[in-house]
Amino acid sequence: MTLAQRIEEVQRTVARAARRAGREPNDVTIIGVCKTVDRDQVDAAYALGLRHFGENRVQDAARKFASPLADDAELHMIGQLQTNKVRVAAPLFDLFQSVDRPSLIDALEREGERLARRLKVLVQVNVAGEAQKAGCGIDAAPALLARVLESPHLAISGLMTIAPLVTDPEQVRAVFHGLRKLRDELCRSHPDATLDVLSMGMSDDYAVAIEEGATHVRIGRAIFQD
Question: Residue 179: pLDDT above 90?
Fold first, then answer.
């Protein structure tokens, strides 16, 4: 399949899953995870209509996007972010999806102040409790959210999770449902928080994630496969 065909297939899958859940396909944002491809593939995907792209490593993003994306495109930091990389990352990314600890919140706040702008963030939650995965525990999420809300140069947009790798996507439906449930609970306990974004679902399980309320899906292999 060509890049255009792969993007169209992902768009069709998104549309079908959204309609099964009684939602509009346009309510779901496709993030092309471009960590395995060079800038020419990103530019080709942009020409085909993608406007959101995700990177895992700050150094790769700094190289790949030395020439910035167009103004109507957004770059998402979706990998674990080290505090010593925040100064390089802050001007590069439009949304930081992997905020999972107080020290990272504080580092981002300092850079937001230095840049005189508010940085958009998601709190990453390890819903499945996998030891090898980043993300705060469910019980720690309220305190992290409160810390973001207390940071004048950060703007909370929602939550993110990474589900376990499984052969049957139905096995991780409960993970996606759990993130949506947590979001609803946090909205009730923190009515001043805007938590519109639920970033969950990747190439193997994004249809199930959409059925459970995902607003953003992170698609790498299904778009940029070799």
Answer: yes
Tokens representing 42? 């990103």
pLDDT higher than 90, residue 226: no
Closest-CA residue to 202 (of 10, 57, 66)? 10
> What CATH number should be reported for the domain holding residue 107?
3.20.20.10
Q: Is the pTM of this model over 0.85?
A: yes
Residue 136 lies in domain = 3-224
Q: How many domains does the chain have?
A: 1
**Tens of pLDDT along 106-140?**
999 999 999 999 999 999 999 999 988 899 999 99
Q: Please provide the distance, in angstroms rounded to a whole number, between the alpha carbons at the two ends of the chain.
A: 10
